[in-house]
């Protein structure tokens, strides 16, 4: 791996972790439930991007599979939360 790529990966991981901290602040201090759901959606997207960055850094397929699982569970979770906010129940 070239030094430029290694530095770019470290910089992107640092920026992703700062974004994750700011998103956690929005998640805990959000004025409404919709803000908290959006922060949770953004949180799983950042986690997925961090996994993909680590997959590039370590050249491992396991991180790609973990990113895929995070994306699938995040979508299902955000769908369930949106349905709960609209109707007050998840299972009909």
From TrEMBL:
InterPro entries xrefs: MrpF/PhaF-like
Superkingdom assignment: Bacteria
Gene Ontology CC: plasma membrane
Cell compartment(s), UniProt: Cell membrane
Database matches in Pfam families: MrpF_PhaF (PF04066)
Molecular-function GO terms, alphabetical: sodium:proton antiporter activity
TM spans (from-to): 6-28, 40-60, 66-86
Keyword presence, Transport: yes
Keywords recorded for this protein, A-Z: Antiport, Cell membrane, Ion transport, Membrane, Transmembrane, Transmembrane helix, Transport
Topological category with respect to the lipid bilayer: Multi-pass membrane protein
Family from the record: Belongs to the CPA3 antiporters (TC 2.A.63) subunit F family.
NCBIfam families (alphabetical): PRK06161.1
Name of the protein: K+/H+ antiporter subunit F
Organism: Pseudomonas prosekii
